[in-house]
Amino acid sequence: MAAGRTGSNDSLVASFEIRHRRFLDENGEPVAALPASAAEPEFLKTLYRAMCLTRAFDAKCVNLQRTGRLGTYATSLGQEAVPVGLASAMRERDVLVPSYREGGAQMWRGVRMEELLIYWGGDERGHAYADPRVARDLPVCITVGNHALHAAGVAAALKFRGEDAAAVCVFGDGATSKGDVYEAFNVAGVWSLPVVFVVSNNRWAISTPLDRQTAARTLAQKGLAGGLRVLQVDGNDVIAVHDAMCEALDFARRGEGASVIECLTYRLNDHNTADDSTRYREPAEVEGRWAYCPLKRMRAFLAKGGWWSDPEEEALQAEIAASIENSVARYLAHAATAPSVESMFAHLHAELPRAYWSQREDALAHARA
User: Fold this and answer.
1) What mean pLDDT is reported for the chain?
2) Which structural domain, as residue segments, surrounds residue 142?
């Protein structure tokens, strides 16, 4: 029998379905019964403020990069609901394992803006977070997808220690084509690990569109092969992201295993400040996606409920601008005190192997010269 054909002797072995969750449409109108969290105006306003801060901070980082005061930077323009929605569902003892577009999640959890700026300015001291709430969170991972294995390792440690906590790993659609991610799914399923893998599906892996990355109808279904619990959500609906994450994290902490949550969103900006997306996608495509903006959606919902006004918006934007400028000033003051050349070798090993001694001496001699 030809491969893929169904014959009379075939029997059904297993069947699966992928569910999609959304509460608000692009105009901020409810399309389903809202969860309990949506009945708390102050919490919803906190989510909105965090998304606004994320967007404004990203814009400032791009300006700093363009003027030579920051390194290459990746914004989350158009997908702010994903980092804010997932972080707002986490507890302090949970562990965030981020990629390079989760500044909104890091700030929600306690990372200071100047610490993010220090890191993106090329100084690893930015990962020495001052707030003890984020002491266990992992640093930014630039290499696509390999931090999924780190998250599985963290989750294995949490389970071994019997901690009431879970790991949360975030990566883009392109990472789901990497072997590291499949391996992480597999071990998380076999060992029933307390980890939630969040796929921020912004439709573009740098210049590669989703339909050229995979033939799978969804990215959530890739977790099925590992035996993981899977769900797809509207990644521009922060209420849906938060709700799905709360559910998955409770599932993980109860010892019931790992989940994959695919968040459907769209990257409105270039992949990063070294990219020019006009080379590979039509401006009209991007322009049409602004209608689904997560900030626009949430503000409309709050306003219709009588929970947000134009004066509040103006006050928020002024407060955010002042906070960012203060953080930038602290960053620039820190940047004036560059780390020593020797610091490159200080944190590689508990004791620097002899093979590196000559390299260290050469680097110090070059610095002195």
Assistant:
1) 95
2) 20-338
The yes-or-no answer on residue 280 being catalytic is: yes
Supply the pLDDT for residue 337.
86
Q: Map residue 130 onto helix, strand or coil.
A: coil
For residue 124, what pLDDT is reported?
A: 87
Choosing from 267, 297, 299, 331, the catalytic residue is 267
Question: Given a cut of 80, is residue 4 above it in pLDDT?
Answer: no
Q: What is the CATH number of the domain that holds 135?
A: 3.40.50.970
Average pLDDT estimate for 37-56: 97
| DSSP labels, 193-230 | -SEEEEEEE-SEETTEEHHHH---S-SGGGGGGGT-EE
Judgement on whether residues 297 and 348 belong to the same structural domain of the protein: no
Which residues partner with 24 through β-bridges? 30
* Residue 19 bears catalytic tag: no
**Does 267 participate in catalysis according to the annotation?**
yes
Question: What does the pLDDT average to over 57-82?
Answer: 98
Q: Are residues 333 and 365 in the same domain?
A: no
What sign does the CA torsion over 18, 287, 72, 65 have? Answer: negative
**pLDDT attached to residue 348:** 78
The pLDDT confidence band at residue 335, using thresholds 50, 70 and 90, is confident
CA distance 309 to 180: 46
**Catalytic residue selected from 19, 66, 125, 280:** 280
309 and 361 part of one domain: no
Residues 367 and 239 in one domain: no
pLDDT of residue 1: 38
Same domain for 215 and 334, yes or no, is yes
H helix intervals, the chain: 41-66, 81-87, 103-109, 113-120, 147-161, 179-190, 210-213, 238-253, 283-289, 294-304, 310-335, 343-346, 357-368
Q: What is the largest CA-CA distance in the chain?
A: 80
* Residue 366 DSSP SS3: helix
Of these residues, 271, 292, 297, 299, which one is catalytic? Answer: 271
| pLDDT attached to residue 3 | 53
Please state, in angstroms and rounded to a whole number, the distance separating the CA atoms of residues 55 and 74: 12
